[in-house]
Amino acid sequence: MIAGIDLGTTHSLVGVMESGFPILVSDGEGRRLTPSAVWFGADGEMLVGWPAMEKKEVDPSRVVTSVKRLIGRRANEKIEPNPDYPIGAGPGGWMSVLIDGQVLSPEKISSHILAKLKADLERSCGQVVDRAVITVPAYFNDAQRAATKRAGEMAGFVVERILAEPTAAALAYGLDRLGEKSRVAVYDLGGGTFDISILELNAGVFEVLATNGDTRLGGDDFDAALAAAWGLGVSDARQIKCALSERDSIEFSGKSYTRAVLESVCAPLLARTRAHCLRSLADARLEPADLNAVVLVGGATRMPMVRRFVAGIFGREPDTSQHPDEAVAIGAVIQAGILEGSVQNLTLLDVTPLSLGIETFGGLMNVIIPRNTTIPCKAGEMFTNAVANQSGMKITVLQGEREMARDNWPLGSMEVAFPPATKGQARLGVQFELDANGILHVLARDTATGRDTVIDIQSAVEVSDEAVEKMLGDSLEHAFEDMDERVFTEARLKAEEMLPAIDSALAQLGDGVPADVRAAILEIAGKARAAIASRSTGDLKKLLAELDTLTEPLAAALLEKAMAG
Ligand code: AMP
């Protein structure tokens, strides 16, 4: 038996397949949602779930909630809004919770929540369950996925799979009911994050075509905007917001609040989801009409304005058949069923949300696994030494969408040694393997000696949620200048190789080169050097092409001279 777990920011759920059906389990008191909260008492006592939430009023600095926002994050990243409990740097510079001088890692705290779910599940089904599928936001990076997996292991699970939440929601929706080949978009607007994914089912193979989103946009932002507009506290604003999903207006403390005002306040926030939807359609190379359904999940999609907005973008009424709070957990259970063999005729293929590559000469990003590649996957590339007698190479692994290495995130780097060789002789194979959990493993192999070096990825990741979102925005915003810089860098690298070679050919051939040809070559070479200095890409490319043509006879003459000599 394998458990399916939605380890949520505010709530978590657990379930298993039973007689071919996904079933969610309730705690001892009949509640399926367990608050993702842990209370740490002064005497070492600990409470998890609802009892921990009850301490929130009296002992807020000892109740850890929303720890998912901290997991896999570096201590120097900004966490907004700041939690009620103290946080700071733990071992290795990772963000940790500090209570009574104790350093508690977010994965340790998450493991307490997972252990509680495990206990509830085992009580309910009367047997030990020690394997699990755990969901994470599609945008979770390597460190966040790895930390979530460790949390599962600390709770006593073998983590069989880390699964993206929107993918889980689509599994719950059951694409297969739409026929042999079908496509759906999953629009997931939760408390803190927005995700949009497009999935396809084709002859039993379930594939994520594209995924996009904003890790800093959700119902909580609506609450903050409404609180400001109405001059209320955030929790009152949230209560009124939820009530206005059912009615046009309500009275609260003697005042009237209307859905019309709510919608005008929330409209600009909601509008931010449009670009992500359009981009995911473009990535999947689909028109809205190509979709068979648009599925809504996440608590905030209960708002009528969200439903209208989604209908407007996709040109169809969204499907609201899924329980907004439970769809992800149900999907995790179905994935567990696929893995244990109780759900058949279905294979799940997920994708990587950001490109992975390494830095090459001139500071360029060399993509090895492009964004939206189906995982698990392996890809590699061969590299060689740029200068003679070089005895090693620094491999820097990058994640991101920008053309220049410096604009992407370094995930890890390592100096790989090889025996000194003449230029272009050494061969280093770099292999990227992205496992089914979306976790990257990098191997560098010296093909001469067969020696492998594993590049450690975990230690260097330092990517905040905000930065992920910014990366995608920036890559669009800077697309033209980035491309220009890449083209310039490539032209410059070519010139840097060509110009010294021309000088050396002219010197070797001496009088063998007619004076007018020599003068013409030198003039263009001079202009090319000036074009490098002034960074004029267009000129440089043109001049290099001219040089190519002009120097053709030199190459032939050099060859002749060598044969004669
Ligand atoms: P989730 O993260 O999916 O649990 O979504 C939680 C978010 O949904 C929070 O921001 C809630 O305020 C919001 N939410 C829950 N119920 C409603 C409702 N009836 N109307 C509007 N928003 C809701």
Task: Explain what the structure shows.
- This protein has 565 residues and is an alpha+beta fold.
- It folds into 3 domains: 3-350, Nucleotidyltransferase, domain 5; 356-477, Substrate Binding Domain Of DNAk, Chain A, domain 1; 480-564, Substrate Binding Domain Of Dnak, Chain:A, Domain 2 (Up-down Bundle), CATH 1.20.1270.
- It contains 14 helices and 28 strands.
- Strands 1, 2, 3, 4, 11 and 12 form a 6-stranded mixed sheet that branches. A 6-stranded mixed sheet has the order 18-13-14-15-19-22, with helices on both faces.
- Helix 11 (479-509) packs parallel to helix 13 (537-550) and helix 11 runs parallel beside helix 14 (552-564).
- The radius of gyration is 29 Å and the shape is elongated.
- The N and C termini lie far apart (79 Å).
- The mean pLDDT is 88.
- Bound molecules: adenosine monophosphate.
- Adenosine monophosphate binds next to helix 5 and helix 6.
CATH class category name of the largest domain:
Alpha Beta
For the CA atoms, what is the radius of gyration?
29 Å
**Uncertain residue ranges:** none
CATH topology of the largest domain: Nucleotidyltransferase, domain 5
| Structural shape | elongated
Gap between N and C termini: 79 Å
**Overall SS class:** alpha+beta
The CATH H-level homologous superfamily of the largest domain: ATPase, nucleotide binding domain
Estimate the strand proportion.
25-35%
Bound molecules: adenosine monophosphate
Arithmetic mean pLDDT: 88
Shape-level CATH architecture of the largest domain: 2-Layer Sandwich
How many separate structural domains? 3
Can you count the beta strands?
28
